[in-house]
Amino acid sequence: MAFLRNNSLLAARSAALAASLLLAPSLSAQAVNSCLDCHSALDGPLQVTPEKFSQDIHTQKGLTCVSCHGGDASSYDPDQAMSRKAGWKGKIDRKQIPQLCGSCHSNPAFMRQYNPSLRTDQLDQYHTSMHGKRLTAGDTKVAVCVDCHSVHDLRPPSDPRSPVNPVNVAKTCSRCHSDAALMKPYGIPTDQFANYSTSVHHEAMAVRGDLSAPTCTTCHGNHGALPPGVDKVQNVCSNCHVFQAQMYGKSSHFKAFQDKGLPGCVVCHSNHAIHMPSDAMLGTGPTGVCMKCHAPGDRCDKARASILGNLTQLDASIKDADQSLRLAESAGMEVSEARLTQDQAQDSLTKARVTIHTFQTALVDADIQAGMKIAAANLKAGRDAMVERNHRRIGLGLCLLAIAFMLVGLWLYIKKLES
Amino acid sequence: MIAALIRWLDERLHLDELIAPFKHKTVPRHKLSYWYFFGGITLFLFMIQVLTGILLLLYYRPGANEASESVQYIMTRVQFGWLIRSIHSWSANLMIFTAFVHMFSVVFLKAYRKPRELTWVTGVILLALVMGFGFSGYLLPWNTLAFFATKVGTEIAGQVPLIGRPLMIFLRGGEEVTGATLTRFFGFHVAVLPGIVVVLIAIHLFFVQRQGMSVPPKVEAEWIANPSARREMKFFPNFALRELMAWYVAMGVLAALAALFPWNLGVKADPFISAPAGIKPEWYFLFMFQTLKLIPSKIWIIDGEVLGVLGCSLAGLLWLLLPFFENEKSSRAKAWVTGISIFVLVYVIGMTVYGFLAQ
After folding, report:
1. C-alpha to C-alpha distance for B129 and B119, rounded to whole angstroms
2. ipTM entry
3. What is the CATH number of the domain that holds B178?
4. Which residues of chain A does B251 touch, with a Cβ-Cβ cutoff of 8 Å?
5. Is B331 among the domain residues?
6. For chain A, which residues make up each domain, given as ranges?
7. What is the chain A residue with the closest CA to B266?
């Protein structure tokens, strides 16, 4: 270790000498940062290039190496620059990192001068997180600020290149949480990212670029990251799925799941691998969820079958009406009114699928019947338009026939006249 | 009964004197006589436009919040409303087409020559006005395509040097295409343009009746060489009955187009959305639109679009004055005019096809 340290010091001294010789003429012209001048010439983890450092939000706001590491950046003498007397801290101990970041970020008066809307409770939240609790207990393998936010090229979360930008959060968490060796001592699974990658939430975020779609921190929190408790899952999901949560909260399943200690929404929809819900979830096939708890033929199985049948029927009716209207439109018929109400039928189907969370057949059926009525009217509108088209063609045929008769009559009359 | 009524009117109005010229009027009869029908067909289609336009007026409501809905009402609720609107739209397009055919037939049969220069001038002005009907009428259903076509069209008008901007503001009724533009275009379409066009048609027909039908130079030469080959027919009833047959054919084509391809309503205009990709004007403006598109944005220090608009305006003016470039005695001038006419026809058709195919 001593040998390595001596080597590093030697390299630093050489780099400092070279930097001082090269940069001496320009020193008077600009602010001196001997830390960066030397460290840019180093290799490995000690290297910090001006390009990298210039990307850091702290650099852009006027902070320097000294702000975190202390020392004297104006001196090219390593002994002076990295002198304990000058407050040099060296590499910050992992245990000290949250405290160091918090020294500014938990100070509202200090932060206000840079970004008055930025929260200043990150450190307090961190202490409540599993990461923070374990760090306090002496576990330095847990995540600290720089593990998620990066260091020396720390960008604001709004920057798409930031590891904590919503698009990158899952990948950032997975760096540790998908590492089986790292997670082994904690006994927690490592398939969260793999599962999340198949989910509808990931698709919304990564494929459709919807930054409001949930990622790890949306459900677990960021600085105060903890898995939501079994009885709190509904509260987490309800942040976005308001109606479903309200209906579920009043349903018979709510109490039943609570009594059995089941994690609400997750029971049917899973947690990380939340797939696009489909009517097949009400079925008895591999994606069916009801029959995992209910017995075939019981009251609930009958209700399930009834709701599934009605939903399937409404879906088919909407498709039939859609095809009928498309046919009429392709024949040039005007069916825009029916086309407009077709959206209402689709809304009724969506509403019925949401109402399922009440687990009351009558309420779901009311929505389904409203949609069925509209779909039936639209199917009729499409068919009527095609009948009307046929009438028009017959009318055209008769009209053309009359014109042909007139033409022949006129031609014969002209011939007679001119003969 | 009818004869008695005619006699009764004749005693009072002396109708015989009015009809007399038509009884004596003759029409040359030769292998190219069928080109004479296109002027009449255009007139027939104009009458259809007036009739169907009046019927549409019973239900149409000009206004950004009502126009699209009222056309939808006409198409879906009014008895035979779909037919009236489809006929009006198809007839408008057919009328512009037959007006173009009529114009080029006049050009190639040399019917614009002395003494028919003024007939030609009124005819070309009528074609421009008919295209104005098309431009103003296209906006009236207030759908997305019409909205953006009007926006582009009025922007092009705004490129005319000096008067461009005031002209654009006058056409739009403000800086942007809004409900005020729609009301204004409605006024042009149903009051201003019909008034001018009816007067000009009357003058055009008066000239035609006064000067009689022109005979193509080649046919005329044959007839001079062989006077016994000269053929004529009475305007009434012989030519009039043939014209009637042509009108029936036009009616049949119109009925078939209206019934088989009803004119669609389009999506109601939304000024806040961006223009649909690859938007194009109606086919009769396409050759000009494509020309403007092909001109570079800057030619030397002059703006390409300004140059294009000036070029098109100048070409239109020269076309209007076509008969005056021909010298009766100079066969060289005649050859030039024929060459330019062929070029114009090929250019208009070529650019229209190119405009259709271009992305």
Report:
1. 15
2. 0.87
3. 1.20.810.10
4. 403
5. no
6. 1-91, 119-228, 299-385
7. A336
